[in-house]
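Objective 1b. Sequence-to-structure analysis of Sec-independent protein translocase protein TatA.
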Amino acid sequence: MGAMSWWHWAIVLVVLVVLFGSKKLPEAARGLGRSMRIFKSEIKEMQNDGKSDAEKATTDETPRQISPTPESDIKRDHQAERKSA
């Protein structure tokens, strides 16, 4: 019951020919194909936008590495504290 057999497809084809006519059926199929292509490209674009947003969120949350203070700066600060005390 779940799968469509060949006579189901035959009935669908007859109904389509009756509704659209044999001349407009290729145009309708072409239009449907274009619509599906546009829909798929929009879905891919949305997924790519979601990935780039997720990458931005993860890069913003990662802590930045603090560069070590050069030893000369530490000595200079220590000497300045001695002089002021």
